Amino acid sequence: MTSPAARPLLALLLGSALAPALACGDDTMESATATAGSSTSPTTATTGDATTAGTVGSSGESDSDSDATQGSSSTDGVTDATTIGTTEEPTTSETGSTTEDVKFDMPDDDADMGPPPSMCKVVDDMNAVGDCMDSAPPDSFEPDVQWEFLGPPGFDESIATPLVANFTDDNDDGEIDLCDIPDVLVIAGPGGGDTPPSRLYLLDGETGVPHGYAEQLVQFAHTPAIGDIDNDGLPEIVVVDSGGILHALEHDLTTKWDAANVWSASQSSAIALADVDADGDVEIAAGTNLWDHTGALLWSKPGDQIYSATAIADLDGDGLQEILTGAAAYHADGTLYWENAGVKAVGTWAHPQVADVDDDGLPEVLVTTNSGIHLLEHDGTTVYANAKPTNDNSDWNRPLNIHDLDGDGMPEMGASSPGSYGVYEALDVAVLWVKDVQDSSGQAGGTAFDFLGAGIAQTVYADEYTMYVYDDQGNILMSTPRRSGTVIEYPVVADID
Fold it and tell me: Could you report the per-residue pLDDT of 345-386, keeping only the tens digit for each?
């Protein structure tokens, strides 16, 4: 594993292919996964006429190794930010343009369906991106840096996935909703391991300016979860500290509650939220444990593993959610639904993900482990086990990128190993394309999004040195330098301004 060394701690790339929205969705088959994600790391971008951004703190490398390069103009700091939590003065720089009017590219529906739902409120089946009405002209995909965030000394490294949600009332209408500017949650810490106490920063999505950070220190490499766990209409954040204790934070980063039980396998793992028993209250899944929305432990099972994630999905069609831990699936009440002997025999870290990969109307479970990729039926029956698409015997435990990546209407999976990133058919692991990368740990994952409006998603992947955007043939549409330790992570695509 390579220690993250470069700055900025977080860089936002703004795509310019489609206007006025960042991009639009494609009509590909949806896949379902209920993990909260796994980790992402700092990115360094180089575009246009470069000016050098300053660094904060010392990484043990020369300035030439660790400086961040950004677009053609920069601004050090922005004043008059809304202040919540604890504040200080890390460095934020802005460059590029911003959007002011269009928040969502919503489909136009002429049918008489009654009054449309409020654009500011989340409703069931809401598609915040919509179908593409236009496609981008050739060679128009040229993202540039919109802003960069550099943490202060001791909190200037990041190896956790940034998360996006609305936490602040930016338009002063008395409500926090989709008509406010989205915010970005970033974990920033000292590096040197996966678990040192770190800060949870809340950044303005449009400018990157910090609103503040939580007084509660959190674990460096875990992935928090965001959701309204108390039905007050505002988001809460569930985090874990370096000692394995769960904490719930309010939208203003103050502590809501501290759980009493220790999550022993929290290192570099992810938290998930769902109403698993359909009682109207959110439950919290982490490893082989389930807590209620107040932080009370409901049940705990053996076999918890670090570097893992929990998936939540209705596998048996009874309307209640099952909790998948890799080798096993549990009903909402903690009773065992199934256990797969082959995955259990591996006895290692795992990332389960759920999708209908054979178009039979039933969910399948893809599980990545150290030994390879496993495909299971919804009842735990093995379809294939320990698949290594590139015959690489290295660790395959990482989040898969499951999506229709070639436009054939069936899901593929993007997967990485220390020397390669490739796209494979999810049903039989047939190779579509493979590209060389530099990732000694091989734990980074990818993301799918249709930036070009062509109806086929592109793949976004970042190794230890470079972030890439690939087309459906594996051709590189964009590459930009960055540095990362590549603990379990993947890039995030969102309209945050």
Answer: 887 789 999 999 999 999 999 999 988 999 999 999 999 999
- Looking up residue 414, the CATH number of its domain turns out to be 2.130.10
Compute the CA torsion angle 318, 324, 330, 334 (nearest 10 deg).
Answer: -110
Q: Tens digit of pLDDT for each residue in 28-84?
A: 333 333 333 333 333 333 333 333 232 233 333 333 333 333 333 333 333 333 446
Helix or strand or coil: residue 384?
strand
Say how far apart CA 317 and CA 248 lie, in whole Å.
31
Q: How many structural domains are present in the chain?
A: 1
For residue 235, being part of any structural domain is answered with yes
Closest CA to 221 of 263, 268, 189: 268
From edge to edge, which strands make up the β-sheet containing 297-300?
271-274, 283-286, 289-291, 297-300
Q: Are 439 and 398 within 8 A, CB to CB?
A: no
Assess if residue 443 is contained within a domain. Answer: yes
Distance CA 354, CA 324 (A): 9
Pairing type for strands 271-274 and 311-313 reads unpaired
Q: How far is CA 118 from CA 123, 124, 178, 179, 234, in A?
A: 9, 12, 10, 10, 17
d(CA 293, CA 280): 11
Q: pTM for the whole thing?
A: 0.79
